[in-house]
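Reopening this one. Same input as before:
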Amino acid sequence: MINFDNRLKSLKDRRQGTRERMLLASNASQYDHRDFRTQESYEKLNESSAIKYAVGAMAAVDDNSTRISIQEGERVADTLISMLSNTGIRATKEIQGSVALDIHIKGHSDVDMLILKEDIVLVETPKLNGSPYIASDQRPMTEIIRELRLLSEDKLTTRYYGTNVDCSGNKSIALSGGSLQRKVDIVPACWYHTHDYQRSGLKHDKEVQIYHKANHELVGNKPFMHIKKVNEKDSIYSGNLKKVTRLMKNLVADMPDYKKGKAKKLSSYDLTALAYDMDGQLSCPSYMSLALVERLRAHLSLLVSSEMLRDRILVPDGSRKIFNKANKLEALQIISNEVNDLAEAIYKSIVPLSHMVYDSATLNQRRVYL
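Same output, byte for byte:
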């Protein structure tokens, strides 16, 4: 049985930092028993701990915390771009990942910053307008972005000497501690002008090729198509796609370690795709958030039972299947069970004397006003 009082404490700490951390920030005595953290709307609900947890786990992190994350990522990226410019390398920055989509679940969330070579790109051939693309640098792009990666490591290590600059990651350089208010991941990459981009000229049709250090290769993805697709569908369903995504991410974060390690085989990107696939099931008013728990429960249960349905689901940008690895089925089963346990706990808190095992209509009809 899940202890939702403990889950609420974990949720609060994740969203706002621990009480002890706030005491230090407020220069308060360790013997001061006040909690300096803001009380959020979900905490004020006159509802059970299970319902408070579900509503809180769906909510976006405080806007100010998100703003600080973005500002810190941009500050580090701008500093690096300036240092690279001094060596004759032109680069630009873009934000990607959970913070860019506002589906992060931590107040002090990591922020992903792409550092892209500005003066040279990869182009899908044959080039559609017929004119040749003549690069100023004739080296293979892997060598060019490898140079960008190594120079970035050197510049960041020198500039942020009081900070932990971890260069061991294959795709990113991770900076944390010291003067930084947030962990920042710097991701060296280049643009890839796909045929779609050559036709449209729209940013979301561009691909990004990220340098993989160990394999000395470029790995492609479409972060801006992903962002566009998710934002568009989330807008159609009044923010419910992101609510469901945050709920799953918080459930995974609060699992015991023996479950969490397996559940994380479905990445944040995959969980977003699972929510994206719910389509019309995401349609409900804001005061029916418990209906989203039930609909997610039913959606995941159906996917667990049907290989055919699992096999058809693609990530939002259409680049691959969600279930492209065997170990993702076990992850789905674990997350599905967790959502099922949450739904049952909510049901029992609403009708504690019921002799029924579970009645989905109870969650589908219950209103919760923030």
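So the earlier flakiness isn't reproducible anymore. For the record, The two ends are 27 Å apart (CA to CA).
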